[in-house]
Amino acid sequence: MDAFTTHTGTAVPLRRSNVDTDQIIPAVWLKQVSRTGFEKGLFAAWREDPNFVLNNPVYAGASILLAGPDFGTGSSREHAVWALQQYGFRVVIAARFGDIFRNNSTKMGLLPVILEARVVEELQAAVAADPTVTITVDLVERQVRLGAGAWSFEIDDYTRWRLLEGLDDIGLTLRHADDITAYENGRQPWLPTTV
Amino acid sequence: MGRTLAEKVWEQHVVRRAEGEPDLLFIDLHLIHEVTSPQAFDGLRLADRKVRRPDLTIATEDHNVPTVLGPISDPVSRAQVETLRKNAAEFGLRLHPMGDAGQGVVHIIGPQFGLTQPGMTIVCGDSHTSTHGAFGGIAFGIGTSEVEHVLATQTLPAYRPKTMAIEVNGALPYGVTAKDLILAIIAKIGTGGGQGYIVEYRGEAIRSLSMEGRMTVCNMSIEAGARAGMIAPDETTFAYLQGRPHAPQGDAWDEAVAYWRTLRTDDDAVFDQVVEIDAATLTPFVTWGTNPGQGAPLAAAVPRPEEFADPVERSAAERALEYMGLTAGTPLRDVEVDTVFVGSCTNGRLEDLRAAADILRGRTVRTRTLIVPGSMLVKLEAEKEGLDEVFKAAGAEWREAGCSMCLGMNPDTLAPGERSASTSNRNFEGRQGKGGRTHLVSPQVAAATAVTGKLTAPADLA
After folding, report:
1. pTM metric for this prediction
2. Of the partner residues B21, B313, B430, the one whose CB lies closest to the CB of residue A22
3. Chain A (108-127) residues lying within 8 Å, Cβ to Cβ, of chain B
4. DSSP labels for B170-205?
5. Which end of chain A is more exposed for a tag (fewer CB within 10 A), N or C?
6. pLDDT in the model for residue B1
7. Which domains are present in chain A?
8. pLDDT, position B462
């Protein structure tokens, strides 16, 4: 996973609520067995509409997605995170996220930032008014900044540390392999196995 | 202070707890399918890691398989299924491939084998893993990074979600099903209402449900945003499990049941949130919009966006009506449907097929109607009862087991603009095929709708 400390970039406002992961990447794109190439499938159905915000050239190169509430609901497909990252997004800001999507994002180094709906709307309006304006997302300070404005966001210390360091979760867990073995030895003997 | 069921199961699985870190949770059962696992196996190979517990892992082919006999014609889909077969062989995992008697939708086969038991932690790279919570365990969907994590370590680092009780008091009226209940719950609390929670469904109406009905309810917990849904085990649970291939036997059975009986929320336990539902007021429920929270009683009309006070909900409703091709104020019973789908991890079990067959017996369908058993065993059992003959005589298609039209990935899809009544779990834009329009319904409403060609409750049939 790539480390995330602070990121400054332009943003794109996606003013829709309940953007489920089927919209972020439709199921037909999930047939791939590779981990790359998903940027072409990002919002594939919506991008067929020339008026869809991502098709607006003024937002080309944006790396921060300003989304409506309940972003990333539905399917657990991590492909949604891969598609956003491979398209060029480093951060998604929304008032609420689907739990699994948010979890998947932090495993991959795409930063999900929760801000109040009112603040997200303010940011969306600012970016719509001037698409060249840049937003800074500072994980060290847990702060989003735009011009003179600054808004704090919450993220638990452990996830923040892991993102700042770009640490591999599996490697961290395997440091506790002895604890896992001890737990396994104490499990109820009647618990099922698949063999 | 007493503990909730969720707290008891969680605590039982904590491998390691340290200040300022998520708990390291042991996973009792890991279900695998072809779509969300290939990149996880690649990750294992890159890091030269093995599957820690092949004996707690089981794989099946479901999402990407056709439901008619024969090979997979799409080369990309075929390659994905073949990749799962290669990975299962390389890492020594039990796999139920297409055509195998044990094959089926991942959330149907776990309970069917008796692998899903009370008090377990169960994960799968699929959000509908919440289904398994019907047995009183904690079961939740994970992404591919976490699939790899569980393969390598048999654990997951996680913070314990908050707890929510959904108390369903009173009895469900005749003709009102588990599906109607969960659709009504989601409409009440919204698609984000359960975010950050494990939901425990409680109350008389829940206790009265069969295991199949309980699975339908827990299955759709994720549609209310909840990480997991669960129901305390009871005699219904034990009766379902006893004698299944992987259920404990003999003294072990007695020992297990004694433990399972402790798996209930203590009387003095406190939930972080409580939602109450009056079962007696419920009627057949359908969705009209493009998220599962946009639902209404079948007897109602397509809502007017201006009825929604919240501007976000109002604009979502406007957008949904446009996508769905619906006019506000139209009675839902007047909505004409092209295709009916009965199946999926939500409603693809034997009880669901029986319910649909009871309505279709001696009648003829007016719509394209797909009846898709959730597993090969469900198919076999249904055929033993002659349900397949009922469906075929009515003009419906009787298919092989798979996820089918639930997700628009395999050949079973809607055409652009086509409208379905579907027993699946998601009415998202394009979920059943690009441009397709989905109304989520119970198997009973699906079957009655197939007969009339319009959204219909069984009670409406002459």
Report:
1. 0.98
2. B430
3. 108, 117
4. S-PPTT--HHHHHHHHHHHH-TTTTBTEEEEEESHH
5. C
6. 86
7. 6-185 (3.20.19.10)
8. 77
